[in-house]
Amino acid sequence: MQRGTENTKVFLMQSPHPWTGVWQRPHHIASRLARMYPCYYIHSQYLINVWRTPGKLLRERRIRAHQNLEIQTTLLLNGERFKVIRSYNKRHLAAAFQRIASQYQADQIVLWIYNPHESHLADTVPHRTLVYDIMDEYAGFPWSPPNVEAEERKLLEQADVVFAGTKALYEAKRHFARKIRCLLSAVEFDHFYQATRSTTQIPEDIRGIREHAEVVLGYYGMVDMRIDQGLLAAIARAHPGWAIVLIGPRVGSFDQLERQPNVYFLGQRSYQSLPAYTKAFDVCIIPFVGDRLTTHINPTKVLEYFAAGKPVVTTFIPDIQEYYRDIAYIASDTDGFLRNLVLAVSEGKQEGERVKRGMDVARQASWDTVVKQMMEDLGLKAPP
Question: Which residue has the higher pLDDT, 61 or 257?
Fold first, then answer.
């Protein structure tokens, strides 16, 4: 990767999400920054995950995804609650950033952090500008360290610019940041609009499910502790002729759902293939539990579902209620979710007004616009 002129900016982005994992906000932003600026996407991989998938680290250790975009994976040790391991991991991760930073002048470097647990990078990596882009309420994750709130408070105070990906996060953090802006996640509309086209072929593994089910309810994303297993099990029992399809990497136990014959775990699928899978869905669902974590999210997938021309049924999430209450069907309990599913199935067959409004909203929500607004706040030229 070329170092560019003295005035060229370079982005060093710390992300908790692997490049080849579920495609999320950091991936969209990094890929657009790289249209104009050198961008390094540094992902931390813990040893236990390498043990589970031994070939993955080698595949991801260093990837040149674009002329200006390099992805690097840094291996860390599990057990960060032990002081000696945490100290090692901090030094090891900082060294990875420092090796890249040494190729540039400090005033060229924009240090971009997603995980507040790695706020120490702001003290150890030379940079001109510090960005904190908030996706989640990290204190809501069970694996977060007990001091994550204090680390985040420090990061909010240090950052030159803070971007909040949801209104709920903006309201929760704005009193602690020097400069903060609410910039919701967006969608690659044309990509997901492929689900509406007759030329898009439904993949074989879901085609068989589609052919035998009266209705297909679909979800993609992380299949983890946010999924309300009790809710999905109740739906499966209430509608045995319906299929519930979950696409994405599984984290944790799903005993309740594995006992249901009409619940299907398809595993992770590529971002490129998601429109084809979504085409097979009659209704897209966001079946999240209500907790501190989900209260502060604005799922990227909701706009993707809209762009695919699908009705959406979701549990109560404040940001969805705020921005999409006249589009998505929102339920606060199991009975309400079941009722909304029946309404959504009917609307999907008729291509109703909610679906049309959803497509209109998604069409206007561009990742290019989000990145342009970010660059304006940083006083930089936006990528084309």
Answer: 257
Neighbours of 187 (CB within 10 A): 26
Average pLDDT over residues 331-358: 92
Considering the domain architecture, whether residues 225 and 161 belong to the same structural domain is answered as no
**CATH at residue 307:** 3.40.50.2000
Q: Which residues span the domain enclosing 94?
A: 10-186+366-377
Burial class of 358 by CB neighbour count within 10 A (0 to 12, 13 to 18, 19+): buried
Residue with tokens 């660059």, as numbered in its chain: 375
Asked if the structure places residue 2 within a domain, the reply is no
Q: Are residues 126 and 228 in the same domain?
A: no
What is the pTM for the complete model shown? 0.92
Find all residues with CB under 8 Å of 234, minimum gap 6, and list them: 334, 338
What is the tens place of the pLDDT at every residue in 97-126?
999 999 999 999 999 999 999 999 999 999
Indicate whether 179 belongs to any domain. yes
Of 139-148, 201-210, 276-285, which gets the smallest average pLDDT? Answer: 139-148
Q: How does pLDDT run across 238-272, given as a tens digit for each residue?
A: 999 999 999 999 988 999 999 999 999 999 999 99
- Which CA distances in Å does 172 have to 143, 286, 356? 21, 23, 32
- Rounded Cα distance, 77 and 86, in Å: 8
Helices (H), 11-76: 25-33, 47-52, 56-60
Compute the distance between CA of residue 95 and CA of residue 100 in angstroms, rounded to an integer: 9
Count of CA atoms in the C-beta half-sphere (13 A) of 1: 26
Number of domains in the chain: 2
